[in-house]
Automatic annotation (TrEMBL):
Pfam families: DUF7885 (PF25372). This is F-box domain, cyclin-like protein. PANTHER family: F-BOX_LRR-REPEAT PROTEIN 8-RELATED, PARTNER OF PAIRED, ISOFORM B-RELATED. InterPro entries: F-box-like_dom_sf, FBXL15_LRR, Leu-rich_rpt_Cys-con_subtyp, LRR_dom_sf. SUPFAM superfamilies: F-box domain, RNI-like. Residues 407-422, 461-481 have a biased composition (Polar residues). GO terms for cellular component: SCF ubiquitin ligase complex. Residues 233-346 form the F-box/LRR-repeat protein 15-like leucin rich repeat domain. Gene3D superfamilies: 1.20.1280.50, Ribonuclease Inhibitor. One of its GO terms (biological process) is SCF-dependent proteasomal ubiquitin-dependent protein catabolic process. The lineage of its organism: Eukaryota, Viridiplantae, Streptophyta, Embryophyta, Tracheophyta. CDD domains: F-box_AtTIR1-like.
Amino acid sequence: MDYTNSLPDECLALIFNFLIFTKDRKNSSLVSHRWLRIEAQTRTRLSLKARSELRPFIPSIFNRFNSLTQLVLRPFTFVDSINDNDMILITSMCPNLTCLKLDACRQLTDSGMVVFSKNCKKLKEFSCRDCMFSDLGIFALLDNSSQLEVLDVYKLCNYPTEVKATPNFRAAESLKVIKLWYVDNERLFEPLIIASKNLTSLNLIGGNGSWDRSLEMIPNDSCLVDVCLEDVNVSDVGLISVAQNCRALKKLWVGWGEIGDEGLIAVGKHCVNLQELTLYGVDASYVSLQVIATNCQNLVTLYLSRSDTITDVEMLCIAEKCIALKILIIEKCHEVSDRGIEAFALGCPNLAEISVIKCDKQEGVINLNAGRAKAVNAITSDSGVQEHVEEVPLVANDVAVTGPERVSTTSTSSRNGDPSSNFKERAKAVNAITSDSGVQEHVEEVPLVATDVAVTGPERVSTTSTSSRNGDPSSNFKERS
């Protein structure tokens, strides 16, 4: 007996909306014809293998799924895909589409884009990958989709010979994110970047085009908070323009290119709100990193990769000045050694994660507590007495020691104040005991607690008493007798 028969269709549809996994929805649709119908009416996302063999089933599929807002079409082949007529029919049957993704639909042309984009009045996100239509097809979409917010273009395989007039981008007012992957004809997208006044994210990745001119045209009151310039032809000129015109920038990725200290200094001077910085294959030096570390006090994530100019000197600078830093990743910076990494033992009080990946001079055993151990020894050197501490294994708040490939550590609570405060109090207590008689009374063995600073080795934490280390092991017993 089906007890859901008493439920109205609206209640059952509400229940289906809580099924977030496609597999669960498919299994539920097999219960009955009613469940099959209601599941289809409540589904908003559909992914199809968009080959020519799909053509006869298009009407029945989209009559069944009539509430779609997100559609993904992938033929999984470069030879066979749906064509312009198929795409026009699909979009006419999905008037509520807000997200459309096309992957390797190579039989779609500019003419088809002009027609079917008129059916996508509510489109907010468009993504295409390895398609054969040209920039003109993209421009037609931008002209017809006035609510578009995200444009993601990967490797357009066909380009027009010339553009006779500047396109009219109705979507420029609403566009917030532009992602261009391996797009060589940058001049065609330059007017779009300039016209998009509300743009918050710009990602330029790969390709042979030169983007300096396009970046120079960014207005000085730009809303950009996220810029990615990875493996594109950008020099210091383009990066300086970004830094000067994007004062609200919070996330910057710079990879390869012709970037040097001049561009990075401009970033440090103008982008004081920067929170995430990635330098991939960029030859940064102490001069530029010092400006960034000094001025960008909100920097919480720093990723340095594939640079031979970053040495222990730069690490010491970062450890001293990047107070807000929480995540540090160093990859294939071959001039960074253990000395540079150990600088973070007493620097960067908010550091929660540090990763060292394939740095040649890093020898595998990194004692981040070495600096704290020296502070502890300095406290007890005057009285010549050090408290005996029992050997204990590392606890969760201690700094871990890992191998040469990757170092992952967790910051301790003692970094927020004086790292040796607990030992200072204990040293005072010991000195008070010995001040009158000159002889140390019995001190009970006390294990380390979570807030103490330990002298760490590769596996265990161990400190020994001063008296047993310097002379006869039974000296403590003789003195007590």
